[in-house]
Write a structure and sequence with these properties.
The complex is a heterodimer. By secondary structure, chain A is α+β, with helices and mostly antiparallel strands. In chain A, 48% of the residues lie in helices and 18% in strands. Chain A has one domain (2-153). The radius of gyration of chain A is 16 Å and the shape is globular. Chain B is globular and about 65 Å long. The chains are: A alpha+beta, B alpha+beta. The A-B interface holds A 1, 42-45, 67-68, 70-72, 74-75, 78-79, 102-105, 107-108, 111, 123, 126, 130, 142, 144, 146-147 and B 88-89, 91-93, 96-97, 99-102, 216, 218, 220, 329-331, 334-335, 374, 376-377, 380-381, 384, 390, 398, 411-412.
Chain lengths: 154, 456
Amino acid sequence: MAHALNLTFKIKQDAETLQKLQDVKKVFASQIQPAIDSVLTSCKLVHFARILVIDDRYMMVLTEYDGDHLAYTEFFRVNLPDVFKMMFSLAEGAPPWDQINNQNDFFNASKVLQVRSLGESTTGEPDANGGVAGYLFSAYGQREVKDILAKLAD
Amino acid sequence: MGRPFDRSNVQAIILKPYAYPISRHLIFSIGNKKGARAFVREWVDSVAHGGRDLSATPEPLINIAISWTGLVKIGAFDDIGGVDQAAAAFPWDFRDDPHQESLGAFGAGAPANWWGQQFKSADIDLICHLYCMTEAGLESTTTWLRESAARTGLRELFASSGGEAITGRAYDGRKLHFGYEDGISHPPINWDDVPDRPDLLPRGQFLLGDWLENAQSFPKDDPWKALTTDGSYVGYFWLHQDVAAFNKFLREQAPVAAPHLPQGDAEEWLAAKLMGRWRDGTPLSLSPDGMNPALATANDFGYADDPNGLKCPFAAHIRIVNGRDQPLNFVNKSMFPAGFPRVLRRGSPYGPPLTGETDDGCDRGIVGMFLCANINQQIYSLTRWIGKTDFSDVYRDQHGQDPLVGNRSIPSASTTFSIPTDKGTIAIKGLIDFVRLQGVAFLLMPSLQTLRHLSI
């Protein structure tokens, strides 16, 4: 069953950060997106993923992924360090990357940024804080990326 | 060489399992800081450590483990920045309640049913683990500990309405209740940090205080790191085994699994396929066709020569919990570059033995600990994989489970155990829960130096 990751943070509004944000936008398709694509294709855990910027004030990372986020947070830190370094460098209040670039601090920093969706999971999925996760619709029910890919290959 | 290593600073059970037939685990809630420190002060010099000669099996052996709430209550953080700063330094998997999803703790094994419904895991502050050779030694030590606890405001928590402490007793050598020999395989560890020993695992995977970039443990910075150095995280597990149901399963499924064998032989064959070892300990990988007393304690084997699971099924218990040279998938290879996560196992059976298929209503199973330096990466990884065999691409059923220990209430879990043979795959359907979690708690087994510090 897919879980939702809704990382959301405010972007620092100083001139240097805003310029850096524009630079990221310019190179995202050519330089950042391919790395994400490669990792997510290989891991066979993520259904969908996208990164949004809202009014240059907020950044959101939205994904739907299989398995326990407690199991895989470390995988994403290890395999997409430059992407997360970029994001945390833009985020208001975020510690320096070299301070959080370890399993424990990265997990803590990411958890704080997770936003629960409205409603309640119809399958009783737990959220990161032990409560019931927010509502997430999946046309595939409990099927996971590996299940779907296997069926498509048949 | 890394930092100096003083074995006398490490609680002995971390360094090696004890060959003691009796164990008892006294579970306590702390009443107040002063009393808790007085209790530790009374017992710290009795704690078994790695500098003691245990070859003459002196009794009792005592080890002490303290939970996150226990560390808070005993004031471990009072002089080093307080609880909030410590909470940021310590990992979530030690601070939080045991994680239901990661443990596969559903249905009858759900946390709401743990500890005989007498208390919750979050109520556990401190556990005294006793190991004795004699019943007299057990009872006298238990009495002393209880008297000490009563004087110092520790309240013992009982997981039964009858007020009995969880007590492990060997009933037939090293056999566990499903009839398997236990304690054959232990990770080989480079305790002394000797250079150029790739055959040994770094001690930093099991002992806190050594930073390993590819096997991180926390806290990683002082002053909190000093508190945990030379300690280990303990996963304390209490598991019920349904022996009657297991025996019935073997009898009913043996003709399906091995129709070419007489009933008794077929049951042993099926039991071996479920575990990955014959019940005498002989590994299937070294002797797929029968027990071999010469190989009963053999541990030098891998799965590279068994890519189709013809000798040892992929979902056999030992192939899941110690994959050896089996390849991990892309995700896990990057998370575990040093290989399969390992844990130290220190457990024993409890409850009376049972033969036959009629349950007698007695509680029996396994009690003990898993020790490691990173609960999420080591203990939880293995419990996740027990519940779902999606950690390696060799598994054709990515929703399969450990047939012996898996919880069939896990959503989407397959209840079929596949046994590859050269004549095709045998599907054993209708796996049930043979094992049920009755309680899990995570604690720190601190160094002697830390215990002395917490006794002042």
